[in-house]
Write a sequence for this structure.
């Protein structure tokens, strides 16, 4: 009997401390996107890194090829070559697309699972796949890296 009472109190205490799930404000992803875009265009790697969830997956343009997995230290070390100018000196396609975008990218509605307190799938904005976590907010989990992936792979920018 005493054991059941202690267990019931413990469960009640845990339930009382659990934060209720609430769907994030629709504007929060738009605000995150604008802050990310601004930091990216201002070439601020330390600020930009906070928008990513590591290991970051750089997705190839074709299905079937393995993505590049980038850890935070590698991201910071190779940021310029990964996101500004390739080792060959060409502007990276992602940067060119951000410059041309104007910040008015379409943000689709994604279904929110209240029981799990998360979105069912990533939300794609441009080439970036955002996920939502109630503790960390919106973060980029993966991005479509396009034709620059072969150069990045051959230059060892994932190490």
């Amino acid at each position: 009997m005493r054991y059941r009472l202690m267990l019931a109190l413990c469960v009640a205490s845990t339930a009382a401390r659990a934060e209720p799930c609430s769907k994030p404000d629709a504007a929060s992803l738009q605000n995150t996107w604008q802050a990310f875009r601004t930091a990216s265009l201002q070439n601020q790697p330390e600020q930009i890194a906070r928008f990513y969830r590591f290991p970051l997956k750089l997705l190839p343009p074709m299905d079937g090829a393995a993505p590049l997995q980038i850890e935070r230290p590698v991201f910071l070390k190779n940021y310029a070559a990964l996101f500004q100018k390739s080792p060959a000196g060409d502007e990276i396609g992602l940067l060119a697309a951000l410059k041309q975008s104007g910040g008015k990218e379409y943000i689709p509605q994604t279904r929110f699972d209240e029981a799990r307190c998360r979105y069912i799938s990533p939300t794609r904005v441009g080439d970036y796949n955002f996920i939502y976590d109630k503790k960390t907010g919106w973060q980029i989990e993966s991005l479509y890296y396009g034709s620059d992936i072969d150069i990045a792979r051959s230059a060892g920018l994932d190490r």
Notes: The first strand starts at residue 52 and ends at 59. The chain has a mean pLDDT of 84. The chain has one domain: 26-154. Helices lie at 2-17, 26-41, 45-49, 72-77, 79-83, 93-101, 149-154.
